Each structure stands twice: as structure tokens, then as C-alpha cells.
Amino acid sequence: MTDQVDDDLDSAAVTGSSAVGRRGGFPKLRMQAADTGPDFGPFIEAMRTLQDLAVSVDAPDEVYGAALSHAQAMIDLLDPYRAPEGESPAGRVLDLPGRGSLLMVPWQVEYFGPDLVRSRGSFRRYHVGGNNAVHGGVIPLLFDEMFGFTSFMAKRSVSRTGYLHVNYRKVTPIDTPLVVESRVDRIEGRKTFVVAELRDEDGTLLADAEGLMIKLLPGQP
Ligand SMILES: CCCCCCCC/C=C\CCCCCCCC(=O)SCCNC(=O)CCNC(=O)[C@H](O)C(C)(C)COP(=O)(O)OP(=O)(O)OC[C@H]1O[C@@H](n2cnc3c(N)ncnc32)[C@H](O)[C@@H]1OP(=O)(O)O
């Protein structure tokens, strides 16, 4: 990706305005902030609540049967609208938690600059691994998203994660406001070393991470 395209994408991220660019070795992919109507955000939030319920309810089988009928009706409703990556709004709505993507944890970036990216949010029932602690596979998802954002803001896109090392310092709770901060540690050629810390609102360190983001060469997928 050229610096010029990085600039275009930066302003898209900051202003929510449209920008279309090539993503380095990626095939042409539109990176355009999605312009959604008022129902998209509540729809995604309802889907998140359904995810919480799907992993937590203990219901009679006929209730699962009824829920299945509703789920099938939703599938029938949505299926005709499948769209390629970059055209679906999911992942392209910066003012929604997790950029409006169910894959992402429902956190909201509150500050992003070349020096620092900060995001706040809570994990929820869907993210439980055991005994109300967040699953150890979910926390790297948050860190990877932060590292992608951080390298993007440092104009190091398009990069992919080479490695991501997580230290789990304390059990991470659900339904508790938390904050994560990420920054560039150092740059060596194509390699951007990034670091991040996840804390609760008292400042207690729950997990920290170090990652290597590697700038793609032309043609690399
Ligand atoms: C609204 C509009 C839109 C707005 C946008 C909003 C902004 C938001 C922005 C963003 C948010 C999204 C964030 C998402 C982020 C997700 C990121 C991911 O999860 S990426 C998927 C997981 N990662 C992979 O799939 C990589 C798979 N691996 C590869 O493809 C290759 O390994 C690749 C291309 C990364 C490197 O391969 P080579 O062949 O080009 O390079 P070689 O020579 O192997 O490595 C280069 C250097 O790196 C070192 N290196 C490579 N891997 C290493 C490792 N694991 N550990 C240590 N060093 C390593 C090597 O030793 C070498 O170092 P020496 O240059 O010699 O000093």
C-alpha cells in the first residue's frame, strides 16, 4: 500500500467519509466506511444478545424447536443479501462496537492516533471460557484487532500478524468495563513490533501482549 492510499484510509477512518483504495498486495478491496440506516446497530446488538443466550440458556426442547423456526425465518430473510467482503457493512462501521462485526468483541475505539490506540468495552456471557472468566482464545482476538488498528494508524498497512504473544496476568471478568491500549514499540524494515495492555478501571493489569505485524509485499495475499 502506498503512503497516499494510507492517507486516504486514515481520513476515511477519522471522518467516516468514503475512500477507495488498493490495499498493497491485496486484490482491489473497497475500504469505505459503511453508511447504514438506524436499524443496523440495533440488529447487531440483538444478534450479540442471541449469541449470549445461545451459549447460556437451559430451555425445554420445544423452546429450542421454536427458536430454530425463528432462526430459519431469519436465515431465509437475510440469505438473498449475501455480499462480498468490503460490501457488507459489518466491520466498516467505526462508530459501532466491534466496527459492527459480530466476529469482533463489542468494544469501541475511543482514541486513535499514530502514537496510541485506546479502546473500551466489556466482555459478555458469550465470551466465557470457564468460571465466568473470559476464554483465553478471545483475548488475543481483541489484541489482534488493536494491533491491526495500531499498525494502520502508524501508516504501516497493509500488514499481517506474524506472531502474537499474550501474557494472562489475572482472570479477565465479563460484564466489567475494561480498557486496552496499544502502541508501536519499534519498527525494523517491514516489521512493526507492537505492544498492548488490558486493564480494568482500577488500573489492574489483566493481560498484556506483544505482536509482530509484517508489511505485505506486492502480490502477497
Ligand atoms: C471504515 C473504513 C475502514 C476503516 C479501517 C479502520 C482501521 C482499522 C484497521 C484495522 C483493523 C483490523 C485489524 C485486523 C487485524 C488482523 C490481522 C491479522 O490477523 S492477519 C491474519 C493472521 N496472519 C496471517 O495470516 C499471516 C500469515 N503469514 C504470512 O502471510 C507471511 O508469513 C507474511 C506475509 C506475514 C510474511 O512472509 P514473507 O515471506 O513476506 O516474509 P518473511 O521473510 O517470512 O518475514 C519477514 C521478516 O519477518 C520475520 N518473521 C516472520 N515471521 C516471524 C515470526 N513468526 N516471528 C519472528 N519473526 C518473524 C522474518 O524473520 C523476517 O525478518 P527479517 O526481515 O529477515 O529481519
TrEMBL record:
<keyword id="KW-0966">Cell projection</keyword>
<dbReference type="InterPro" id="IPR006683">
    <property type="entry name" value="Thioestr_dom"/>
</dbReference>
<dbReference type="Pfam" id="PF03061">
    <property type="entry name" value="4HBT"/>
</dbReference>
<keyword id="KW-0809">Transit peptide</keyword>
<keyword id="KW-0378">Hydrolase</keyword>
<feature type="domain" description="Thioesterase">
    <location>
        <begin position="132"/>
        <end position="206"/>
    </location>
</feature>
<keyword id="KW-1003">Cell membrane</keyword>
<dbReference type="InterPro" id="IPR052365">
    <property type="entry name" value="THEM4/THEM5_acyl-CoA_thioest"/>
</dbReference>
<dbReference type="InterPro" id="IPR029069">
    <property type="entry name" value="HotDog_dom_sf"/>
</dbReference>
<keyword id="KW-0053">Apoptosis</keyword>
<keyword id="KW-0472">Membrane</keyword>
<keyword id="KW-0276">Fatty acid metabolism</keyword>
<keyword id="KW-0963">Cytoplasm</keyword>
<comment type="similarity">
    <text>Belongs to the THEM4/THEM5 thioesterase family.</text>
</comment>
<keyword id="KW-0443">Lipid metabolism</keyword>
<protein>
    <recommendedName>
        <fullName>Acyl-coenzyme A thioesterase THEM4</fullName>
        <ecNumber>3.1.2.2</ecNumber>
    </recommendedName>
</protein>
